[in-house]
Amino acid sequence: MKCIPKNYINILKMASIFTSFCLIIYFILPALVNSSFWNIFRSNQVRIIGGRDAFKGEFPYQALIKAYRRNESFICGGSVISEWHILTAAHCVADMDVMEIKLGSTVISYQAGVPVFIITPQDLLIHENYDSDFMKNDIALIKLKYSLSFWSERIKPIRLPRLSLQIAPETYDNDIATVTGWGKIHDRAKGAHNILQTARVNIMPFWQCKYYMATMYYKLEDNQICTLYTGSAPCSGDSGGGLVIEEEDGIKTIIGIVSFGLSFCESGNPTVYTSVSAHLPWIEYHTGIKTRI
Q1: Closest Cα partner for 86 from 115, 58, 48?
Q2: Do the Cβ atoms of 239 and 209 come closer than 8 Å?
Q3: Closest listed residue to residue 216, CA positions, set 278, 277, 260, 275
Q4: What are the residue ranges of helices labelled H in 189-266?
């Protein structure tokens, strides 16, 4: 039997240690980073903090989505975009068993005469490239069984953005937008608020948010938008709700869908939205809605 010199054994030991270190860096560290990222950063129940009560009929496009998944239920928002379709976040409806959708109301509690739709998975269309791990293409459509026909002033569609804006992630940098939801009214509150909340938010410059998210080990895509939490904003309520601006003609236009945000509320932390502009071809293809050029 051939013996191995002692210095060779030391070299082999060092090689083994180096190999183990490489394995930790390559396989284990990313898992820890991702785990830390989602435990600290991701909160898909983004809540309105520091807003105000919405007036009746102020946001006629707002939908309340109550989803039931296995033994749990949760609330999301959505936006009416046609008499047949509601736009929301994919993570709100993925793997759900059944949903209730309430329209034309600013309160969660039961109201006589307010339409409630029962939705099953067959009525859903989730983006084919939706990534639930990193919240990419977090967008979905709900097809209603019955036409809304917009019989009430309290139920109307929100306008979609122009098709020509779909390739420019910086289009809305520094704009002021509006968000709505039934989330907590302050960070220590528990559960949803009964009355719809609304708040004004600042749209974060795309490059700035992309840099910030990179420090959190998250790659921001061109089809995402950020707003900055400055005291009244969505913060760690409703996912799926719309990010809305008022265009020069005075008409409200939806440009984003609440996707995720920090699980704690501190000034300077962004909330991430799915860009509606970037997904206009997908929306148009599946709904037949003709978007503006």
Answers
A1: 115
A2: no
A3: 260
A4: 206-215
Per-residue CA distances from 232 to 6, 9, 101, 133 (Å): 67, 63, 26, 28
Per the CB < 8 A criterion, the answer to whether 257 and 86 are in contact is: no
Q: Report residue 198 CA to chain centroid gap.
A: 16
Residue matched to tokens 């036409």: 147
Q: What are the residue ranges of helices labelled H in 50-97? A: 90-93
The model's pTM is 0.80
Tell me the residue length of the chain.
Answer: 293
Calculated CA dihedral for residues 173, 180, 200, 289, nearest 10 degrees: 40
Residue written as tokens 């980073």? 33
Q: Which residues are catalytic?
A: 91, 138, 239
> What pLDDT, in 10s, does the model give residues 104-113?
888 887 766 6
Give the residue carrying structure tokens 């979905």.
140
pLDDT digits (tens, 9 = 90+) for 2-36: 333 444 334 434 444 444 444 333 333 333 334 33
Tokens standing for residue 57? 């009929």
